[in-house]
């Protein structure tokens, strides 16, 4: 095989003394236009929903929406006192309930005390069609009025669906600015450490930062044009993807540029060669991630499919900025940008005597023990996933417990566990008595009663005696569905506990559908890039093993250290997408360079050692940076995002160090030329 002239690569032709200026100016103009004129986004209360319209709980809610009072959802004020409420307290609370109704122009119920007198509740119907801002403003007003002029020692907390919605929205108040600031700071610090230059880091950070803002505006515009809802978790994950992946691609390009500056007098020639050499690997790896994200569109969960579309949009823009604008921006200042370690034409390549060169030599000199040991370590870590449990209750979804969740805990101590979020059964008026009787016979049901009817639909409201969204509650919902269908085959069971059960089933179905598709995509992209069946299978298998290892270690941390009872239902699938698609990036960067070296040396072991020596430093920097950026998701106080950040961050580090730095070179050395079968390199 003849060495490829990288300068002939189409994108490399955009770099030149005048062309680079034009490319940078056009990039700034287009970015400004996008940020100025992007349509407004579509946001809504269900943007983070894991429940499709086809789920039984969704169909039950749609039927019950036909009832006269279906457009209302109660906010519940929970009054309590240590030692119990006195008759004088209850009289004062009755007056407070009247004040609530008159000041808010709403219908507030009289206080209903618990049997033990420890607490009392006041229900306030709230219109369910309010926007997020309107609902949050109303809940704040309810809380303010409910807490005024109370007897000493009596506390008031507000819960119910409107309050939970308001508290969830408050999680993301200012979150985009906070997330952007922390992410940019982490990236800046790691770039400074990587390049040891006082100003070089400014160029990639500025380019990727502008790309992130453009991606955010394009996402908002796409949301407005196509009507899919976005929320803070979707935009946060997208921003992390853009910064993490975009900076990874920038690191790879700049490392290749610095390498070529030692071989070319002209910086433009050096960058053209760098773009031609790095772009195929970057396009292959980014294409793998984008296609994997788009595969999420076949998922039934609206939240998961929304992340897939949003992430794909963000990655396309990140790649565009990394390969179109960054090369031109880097050549404009000249070589002094690398000061104080300026690469000169004719300088020796330090990779030949660097740390990763020595690692490569050590690993490939004893490939059998190294391969067995590394795979054994990954397998031991993966064993932790065998006990994995998914499905967080509503009270477990926040890192910091908001008032609505605290109120639910107070409520559960004094009233039947399911009173704050009753289960609903949609039936017909002629079957309502039979359905009510059947529901009352189910173990775990505290009470069931008719709650309203129209000509075609009737509602039965069921209060469970077990903790909401617990395993017992989900089991009770399954029994309830069986019981009411005996009385009415068309009856549908909904409510929060039914939604949790349907979400868990939806997540399991989505994993069965999406994971095989992503594996096929990864294999095909590896086959296209490396033209080797053996290489594609080996790299894909090691990446999947590192995902299982990260999942196992993550679950042990969550369960035994942090005390979380489960992973969110979306975490395993989203972690799989990010780890397998992003994790295979590092193997792509390594083996794509090894394939290039193989064409020159015709020695599989020498080529992987040289590839590891040349790419080891930049891939390690990229992996540490990507892991740190994903960990930044923890600044948003949702357990889902914290879990995703930990699992993906740890998995990326595993891929970067153990899989790419140890296991892959050992396996290549074991396979020899057969690693490249059936391409010409294997012969």
From TrEMBL:
Belongs to the resistance-nodulation-cell division (RND) (TC 2.A.6) family. MmpL subfamily. Its main location: membrane. The chain crosses the membrane at residues 20-38, 177-195, 234-254, 275-298, 304-326, 368-388, 514-530, 537-558, 570-590, 611-640, 646-670. This is RND superfamily putative drug exporter. Keywords: Cell membrane, Membrane, Transmembrane, Transmembrane helix. It is a multi-pass membrane protein. Residues 221-332 form the SSD domain. SUPFAM superfamilies: Multidrug efflux transporter AcrB transmembrane domain (SSF82866). It is found in: Cell membrane. InterPro entries: MMPL_dom, Mycobact_MmpL, SSD. The lineage of its organism: Bacteria, Bacillati, Actinomycetota, Actinomycetes, Propionibacteriales. The keyword Transmembrane applies.
């Amino acid at each position: 095989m003849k060495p490829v002239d990288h300068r002939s690569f189409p994108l490399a032709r955009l770099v030149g003394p005048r062309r680079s200026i034009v490319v940078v100016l056009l990039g700034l103009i287009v970015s400004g236009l996008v940020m100025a004129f992007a349509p407004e986004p579509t946001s809504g209360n269900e943007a983070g929903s894991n429940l499709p319209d086809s789920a039984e709980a969704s169909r039950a809610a749609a039927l019950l929406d036909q009832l006269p009072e279906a457009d209302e959802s109660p906010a519940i004020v929970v009054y309590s006192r240590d030692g119990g409420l006195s008759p004088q307290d209850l009289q004062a609370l009755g007056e407070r309930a009247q004040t609530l109704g008159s000041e808010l122009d709403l219908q507030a119920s009289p206080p209903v005390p618990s049997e033990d007198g420890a607490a009392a509740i006041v229900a306030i119907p709230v219109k369910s069609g309010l926007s997020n801002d309107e609902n949050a403003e109303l809940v704040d007003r309810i809380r303010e009025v409910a807490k005024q002029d109370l007897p000493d020692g009596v506390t008031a907390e507000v819960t119910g669906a409107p309050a939970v919605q308001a508290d969830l929205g408050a999680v993301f108040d200012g979150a985009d600015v906070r997330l952007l600031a922390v992410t940019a700071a982490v990236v800046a610090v790691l770039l400074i450490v990587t390049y040891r230059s006082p100003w070089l880091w400014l160029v990639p950070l500025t380019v990727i930062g502008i790309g992130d803002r453009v991606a955010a505006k394009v996402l908002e515009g796409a949301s407005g044009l196509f009507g899919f809802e976005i929320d803070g978790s979707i935009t946060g994950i997208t921003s992390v993807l853009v910064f993490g992946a975009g900076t990874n691609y920038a690191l790879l390009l700049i490392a290749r540029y610095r390498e070529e500056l030692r071989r070319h007098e002209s910086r433009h020639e050096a960058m053209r060669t760098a773009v031609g050499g790095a772009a195929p690997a970057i396009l292959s790896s980014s294409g793998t991630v984008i296609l994997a994200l788009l595969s999420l569109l076949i998922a039934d969960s609206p939240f998961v499919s929304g992340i897939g579309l949003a992430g794909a949009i963000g990655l396309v823009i990140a790649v565009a900025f990394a390969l179109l604008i960054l090369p031109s921006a880097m050549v404009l200042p000249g070589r002094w940008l690398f000061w104080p370690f300026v690469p000169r034409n004719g300088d020796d390549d330090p990779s030949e005597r660097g740390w990763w060169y020595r690692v490569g030599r050590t690993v490939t000199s004893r490939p059998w023990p190294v391969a067995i040991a590394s795979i054994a370590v990954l397998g031991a870590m993966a064993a932790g996933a065998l006990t994995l449990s998914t499905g967080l209750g509503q009270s477990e979804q926040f890192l910091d417990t908001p008032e609505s969740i605290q109120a639910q805990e107070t409520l559960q101590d004094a009233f039947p566990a399911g009173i704050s979020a009753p289960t609903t059964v949609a039936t017909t008026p002629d079957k309502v008595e039979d359905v009510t009787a059947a529901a009352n016979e189910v173990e775990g049901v505290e009470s069931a009663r008719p709650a309203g009817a129209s000509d075609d639909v009737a509602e039965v409201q069921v209060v469970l005696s077990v903790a909401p969204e617990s395993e017992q509650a989900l089991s009770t919902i399954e029994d309830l569905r069986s019981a009411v269908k005996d009385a009415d085959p068309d009856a549908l069971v909904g409510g929060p506990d039914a939604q949790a059960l349907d979400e868990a089933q939806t997540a399991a179905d989505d994993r069965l559908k999406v994971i095989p598709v992503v594996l096929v995509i990864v294999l095909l992209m590896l086959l296209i890039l490396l033209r080797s069946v053996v290489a594609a299978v080996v790299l894909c298998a090691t990446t999947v093993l590192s995902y299982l290892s990260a999942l196992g270690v993550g679950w042990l941390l969550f369960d035994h250290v942090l005390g979380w009872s489960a992973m969110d239902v979306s975490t395993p699938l989203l972690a799989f997408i990010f780890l397998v698609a992003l994790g295979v990036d590092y193997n792509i960067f390594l083996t794509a360079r090894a394939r290039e070296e193989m064409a020159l040396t015709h020695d599989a072991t020498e080529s992987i050692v040289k590839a590891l020596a040349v790419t080891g430093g930049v891939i390690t920097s990229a992996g540490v940076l990507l892991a740190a950026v994903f960990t930044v998701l923890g600044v948003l106080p949702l357990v889902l995002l914290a879990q995703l950040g930990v699992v993906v961050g740890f998995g990326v580090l595993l891929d970067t160090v153990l899989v790419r730095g140890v296991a892959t070179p050992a396996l290549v050395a074991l396979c020899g030329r057969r690693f490249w079968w059936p391409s010409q390199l294997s012969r």
